[in-house]
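Following up on my earlier message about zinc ion. Here are the inputs again, as you asked, copied directly from the submission form:
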Amino acid sequence: MSKLKPHNYHAGYVAELRRGPVLPGGKRGWVTIYNARKQMLDEDGGRWVTVCQTHGTLLNHTSQCAARATMKGGSIKFCDDCRDAELGGEA
Ligand SMILES: [Zn+2]
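Thanks, got it. Here's what our run produced:
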C-alpha cells in the first residue's frame, strides 16, 4: 500500500485519482476503478466499476475507457452523496 495510491493493493485495482469530495483537511477523496469480477463486485452493468471511496457508491461501465472518463469527471458525476454535498446539503 502506498500513500500516493492507497487502494492499489486491492484485487482488481485498475486506476485511481483524487476526484472525490473535498474532505476535512482540504484533500479530495479517491475515485477508484476496479475489475468487477476480481473485486467480487456486481458485473451486471459492465465489468469495470468506478467507486467513490468516500461514500462507497459504485457505477458499472462496459468499457475501461468509459470508466476512466467517469473517474476523471469526478465522483460528483455518479455519486448522489457527493452531489448532495456539492449542493450545500449535509454529506
Ligand atoms: Zn461520494
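One observation from looking it over: Strands lie at 13-17, 31-35, 48-52, 57-61. Hope that helps, and feel free to reply on this thread.
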